[in-house]
Amino acid sequence: MPIPSQLYMLFLSLAQGVRDLPELPKMDATEERLMHLFAIAWFSGKNIGVMDAMEMVEDISPRTVHRRLKTLRAKGLLALDSDHSGTKKFVVPTELANTYFSQMGHCLLKATQN
After folding, report:
1. Total structural domains in the chain?
2. Residue 45 falls in which region: left (phi positive, over 0), alpha (psi -120 to 50) or beta
């Protein structure tokens, strides 16, 4: 069985292949980091308001997060959903985002099965 560091390096190598898939949009490091943080929140059942998203990362300014929310929406990875009154907007994953997360999950499975 490979040692954990080798598994991690294999996962990183496989994940790079996902980043290069033509059907997925290219993300910069900040966008990818936000997507991963959002995935953690969504997995735990949390709704992420736009204002909450802007405050999620201490070392990235809210203004930068807001710009990245716009670029992730333009790339088709995020959508906005309003509450029943239409006053609060929530960041939600799209099918393309779910495809990205699924591909990354396959990388993890493949790395651990080798």
Report:
1. 1
2. left
Q: Which tens digits make up the pLDDT trace of 58-81?
A: 999 999 999 999 999 999 999 999
d(CA 71, CA 84): 25
Record the tokens describing residue 18, joined without a space: 């996902």
CATH code assigned at 13: 1.10.10.10
Q: Write the CB contacts of 38 (distance below 8 Å, at least 6 apart in sequence).
A: 48, 53, 78, 91, 93
pLDDT of residue 20: 92
Which has more confidence, 23 or 2? 23
Longest Cα–Cα distance of the chain, Å, equals: 54
Task: Give residue 114's pLDDT.
Answer: 67
Identify the domain containing residue 68 by its residue range. Answer: 4-113
Select from 39, 35, 41 the least CA-distant residue to 65.
35
What is the mean pLDDT of the segment spanning 1-13? 89
Angle at 70 between CA 12 and CA 82, to 5 degrees: 110
